[in-house]
């Protein structure tokens, strides 16, 4: 479902960052939802986080457990989480064990207890933790379906939103699990030595929701869900965008080469091997934006802020004052076990904040390592490019070339037209027994540019792009040759005349002309 839905006042906020976004507003009031996941997936934390959020809003909550775990142990484990508020227990949140009632009286006794306790506590939210116990004690699957249906009808009439937690047993998702109004699945997936948590919504009656696998993590603050970036972007141009034309680098020669800079709101790849000057070009782009009154954001994976400042200062770019004035924001994440969805949400938040006009992402390889499915990165970048375009935020990111020298130039990305509008290629070549950098514009979409290969000079005074490499040939192959003028052929020496020989004598006597008579007939 993609359109329509209940009114906002009929929604129950979960209080879990990102989850209401995935559910397009939260749970629907008076409906029954099931959370399915193996032990350790985070079901109990998710449910209790919703409970304490609702209690903080002034609502009353009933938490009914069918587990052998004591409430004292449950509450003790929750006390380590920041959302736990002891003032809510037992006043607004009531924990009650129904395991004995279920064991002795079966599903009918359990259903009676639920009806009675909801009315007694005037609960607007019910959590039934441990449906697996009811499944195991149910005389038949039909009886279990009847219990779920009866509970759904009762809570719906009362207007009590219900969340049921279950592991699904060894058979996983079954037909009776789909009787509810919504089904959320929590999973832990292992990729090599790494494990990631993912949430997906299999069903959500009467409302739109975000499809797909969304990453989440559990910290001391509870659950945080990171909706997939691909499911969040919008293709409509934001009002107010489209006013700027060009964003310059502030590098002498380069802006002239690009006819004033890259188009505003476009995405540019800086492709080159390590040491070719990609990071410094990106920092120069942010510094020029700050000089023009455009705030920039630097997403770094390899250089901590202190190291970045020292590196920039080494070439005459002083970024510290820009940071102090608030014209430059810096985010640093070591390229270890990042969550791609988490970085996507941070980028999306920065872009949609409206406070930055330029973003420099350094670099693409860290995104690749963050994704457990490498084929997804291109779609992730395509969504990011689209979001920057509609909000007129100019994005630059670095991509490391696979080889520093050699006749082949390979693009590490597939479908490169989808993930970038402009490509600046940097390379080092050996010329006159020394390494020299050059830069070339391979592509600038819908704009004129100078395609010449020009030298990129990096000195203590800054960056500069010089004249075209007139003396070099085959620079793009990495096997540069020096263009030298062709030698002028020398004239053949003339033979010296022999002594005492007149010119008439030296002349070759002409052969006597032979008269040939043509025979006619025999």
Describe the structure.
This protein has 522 residues and is of the alpha/beta class. It is 29% helix and 25% strand. The chain contains 15 helices and 24 strands. It has helices spanning 19-22, 43-56, 71-78, 99-121, 131-137, 141-158, 254-257, 278-291, 305-313, 320-325, 340-352, 364-370, 376-390, 416-419, 503-506, and strands spanning 11-12, 27-28, 32-37, 61-65, 93-97, 125-129, 161-166, 182-191, 194-204, 214-219, 222-226, 246-247, 262-263, 267-272, 296-300, 328-332, 358-362, 394-400, 422-431, 434-444, 454-459, 462-468, 472-473, 481-482. A 9-stranded mixed β-sheet has the order 5-4-6-7-3-8-9-10-11, sandwiched between helices. A hairpin with a 2-residue loop joins strand 8 and strand 9 (194-204). The protein is elongated, with a radius of gyration of 37 Å.
Question: In summary, what is this structure?
Answer:
This protein is of the alpha/beta class and 522 residues long. It is 29% helix and 25% strand. α4 (99-121) packs parallel to α6 and α11 (340-352) runs parallel beside α13 (376-390).
């Amino acid at each position: 479902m993609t359109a329509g839905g209940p009114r906002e006042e009929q929604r129950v906020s979960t209080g879990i960052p990102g989850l209401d976004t995935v559910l397009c507003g939260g749970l629907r009031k008076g409906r029954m939802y099931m959370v399915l996941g193996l032990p350790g997936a985070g079901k109990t934390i998710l449910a209790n986080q919703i409970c304490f959020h609702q209690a903080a809003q002034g609502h009353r909550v009933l938490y009914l457990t069918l587990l052998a775990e004591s409430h004292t142990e449950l509450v003790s484990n929750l006390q380590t989480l920041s959302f736990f508020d002891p003032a809510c227990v037992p006043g607004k949140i009531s924990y009650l064990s129904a395991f004995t009632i279920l064991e002795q009286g079966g599903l009918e006794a359990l259903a009676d207890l639920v009806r009675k306790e909801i009315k007694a506590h005037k609960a607007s939210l019910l959590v039934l933790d441990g449906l697996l116990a009811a499944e195991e004690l149910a005389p038949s699957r039909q009886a279990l379906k009847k219990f779920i249906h009866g509970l759904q009808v009762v809570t719906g009439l009362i207007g009590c939103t219900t969340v049921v937690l279950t592991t699904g047993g060894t058979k996983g998702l079954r037909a009776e699990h789909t009787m509810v109004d919504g089904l959320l699945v929590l999973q832990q997936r292992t990729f090599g030595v790494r494990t990631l948590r993912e949430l997906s919504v299999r069903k959500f009656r009467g409302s739109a929701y975000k499809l797909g696998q969304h990453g989440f993590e559990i910290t001391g603050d509870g659950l945080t869900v990171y909706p997939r970036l691909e499911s969040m972007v919008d293709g409509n141009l934001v009002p107010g965008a489209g006013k700027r034309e060009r964003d310059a680098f502030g590098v002498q020669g380069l802006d002239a080469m690009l006819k004033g800079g890259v188009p505003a709101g476009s995405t540019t790849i800086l492709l080159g091997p390590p040491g070719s000057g990609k990071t410094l070009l990106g920092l120069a782009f942010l510094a020029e934006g700050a000089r023009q009154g455009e705030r920039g954001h630097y997403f770094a994976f390899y250089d901590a802020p202190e190291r970045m400042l020292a590196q920039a200062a080494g070439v005459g770019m002083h970024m510290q004052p820009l940071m102090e004035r608030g014209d430059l924001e810096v985010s640093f994440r070591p390229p270890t076990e990042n969550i791609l969805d988490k970085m996507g949400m941070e980028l999306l938040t920065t872009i949609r904040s409206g406070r930055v006009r330029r973003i420099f992402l350094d670099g693409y390889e860290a995104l690749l390592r963050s994704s457990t499915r490498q084929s997804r990165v291109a779609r992730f970048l395509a969504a990011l490019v689209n979001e920057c375009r509609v909000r007129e935020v100019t994005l630059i990111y670095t991509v490391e070339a696979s080889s520093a020298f050699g006749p082949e130039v390979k693009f590490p990305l597939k479908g490169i037209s989808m993930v970038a509008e402009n490509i600046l290629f940097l390379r080092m070549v050996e010329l006159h027994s020394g390494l020299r950098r050059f830069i070339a514009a391979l592509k600038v979409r819908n704009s004129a540019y100078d395609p010449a290969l020009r030298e990129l000079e990096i000195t203590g005074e800054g960056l500069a792009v010089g004249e075209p490499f007139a003396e070099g040939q085959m620079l793009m192959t990495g096997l540069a040759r020096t263009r030298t003028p062709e030698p002028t052929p020398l004239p053949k020496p003339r033979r010296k005349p022999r002594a005492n020989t007149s010119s008439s004598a030296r002349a070759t006597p002409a052969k006597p002309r032979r008269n040939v008579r043509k025979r006619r007939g025999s």
